[in-house]
Design goal:
Elements: H1 2-31, H2 33-36, H3 40-83, E1 90-91, E2 94-101, E3 112-119, E4 122-130, H4 138-154, H5 158-180, E5 197-204, E6 209-215, E7 221-224, E8 227-230, E9 252-256, E10 262-266, H6 269-272, H7 283-290, H8 298-312, E11 321-328, H9 348-352, E12 361-362
Parallel strand pairs: 2-12
Antiparallel strand pairs: 1-2, 2-11, 3-4, 4-5, 5-6, 6-9, 7-8, 7-10, 10-11
Helix pairs in contact: 1-3, 4-5, 7-8
Length: 364
């Protein structure tokens, strides 16, 4: 009831002002003797009246559009916080920082997705990139994230988590195809065949062992000591969508994330960013530069990379960019306490501090 009372005066004002301006113009034209004359002074006065009326209508429409735009951005901001929930600064002994840059100035959400969840099987991470960007990719990203958030707790094997994501994507594309191209209720055989999603799944166990499954996504960088190297150079699987998954989906071992080491996950928009001369951005070089700053916390690494990106690019990026930094802050020789909830092991000064990144989409 309170919302109705608040909205009704605004709607009444939106309809009443144009009507009042129009009534003023018509009244002047029909009743004012000056408006009936053909002299130069009369014409100037009439033109001035109608110019004032037109200006008032334009200003009113402008204010209405700006108000609607602010409302749309507020709604998009809520969607952003639901889709990419702000990550806590610490999850099960891992220090975390993340950010997303949207290629669409009209949207605060894009087609990139990420999530970090502590489970009894270890900390599980997803980084994905939906084909396209902006609002059109939001539904696909939401379908995959919703499936991931359930599957990581239910499935002991990372391959079965990936199969759940594949089924969720196929189901979402079928539903979208039926909405866009209704065909008498028949199930479309190849729903939105050109759609695909690159997906990287990581599992970081309590002893630091890392296991991976990669469907067409860039491999993360491992920051260890003074070196920055790809986590692995193995050939990834094809992206989700166009091709069926192979029968064997065993997660591949990718070494260990030792205490003090960091993993940097990203979408290809980061390394595809170009400067005014068409040169690509070197994420690896930016990460190497971040190693020279001590202490190189995930928040500082993320800030360094974003600063380098802003200096490199001219205007907005051509594609959405997502960055996720994970550092192993577990004590040497101690297993982290298992947690069945997202971010359940949040303790110490990191828990009391405000998260360094709350994942607001940043427009460059």
């Amino acid at each position: 009831m309170i919302r109705i009372k608040a909205v009704f005066p605004r709607r009444l004002l939106a309809l009443g002002l144009p009507t009042a301006w129009g009534a003023v113009a018509m009244t002047y034209k029909l009743t004012c003797p000056l408006a009936q004359q053909d002299g130069l002074g009369a014409r100037v006065a009439t033109s001035a009246v109608f110019f004032a009326v037109g200006t008032g209508l334009i200003l009113h429409v402008r204010q209405t559009l700006l108000r609607e735009l602010r409302q749309i951005r507020r709604v998009a901001g809520v969607a952003q916080s639901v889709l990419l929930r702000p990550l806590p600064p610490r999850i099960d002994g891992l220090n975390i920082a993340a950010a997303q840059l949207s290629a669409d100035r009209g949207a605060t959400v894009g087609g990139d997705l990420y999530e970090v969840i502590a489970t009894e099987h270890g900390v599980r991470v997803v980084m994905g990139d939906v084909r396209g960007h902006g609002i059109t990719a939001l539904g696909t990203a939401a379908a995959l994230l919703g499936s991931f958030r359930e599957a990581v707790h239910d499935e002991p094997d990372l391959g079965r988590v990936l199969r759940r994501l594949d089924r969720a994507l196929a189901r979402h594309l079928r539903e979208r195809s039926r909405e866009e191209h209704p065909a008498g209720g028949r199930e479309p055989e190849n729903p939105v065949a050109e759609e695909f999603v690159t997906v990287l799944l990581l599992e970081i166990r309590r002893d630091g062992e890392v296991r991976v499954l990669n469907c067409g996504h860039p491999w993360p960088y491992l920051m260890s000591g003074t070196t920055v190297e790809p986590l692995t150079r193995a050939a990834p699987l094809p992206p989700l969508g166009p091709f069926p998954l192979p029968p064997d989906l065993s997660a591949a071992p990718a070494g260990r994330l030792l205490p003090g080491d960091s993993l940097v996950l990203y979408t290809d928009g980061a390394e595809d960013a170009r400067d005014a001369h068409g040169r690509f951005f070197s994420l690896r070089a930016a990460l190497a530069g971040a190693l020279h700053t001590q202490p190189s916390s995930p928040q500082l690494v993320l800030r360094t990379v974003l600063t380098a990106l802003r200096r490199h690019m001219t205007g907005t990026p051509s594609d959405d960019i997502a960055l996720l930094v994970l550092r192993n802050d577990r004590a040497q020789g101690r297993g982290s306490r298992p947690s069945g909830a997202r971010g359940g092991d949040i303790s110490g000064s990191a828990a009391r501090a405000r998260p360094a990144t709350t994942q607001p989409t940043t427009h460059l």
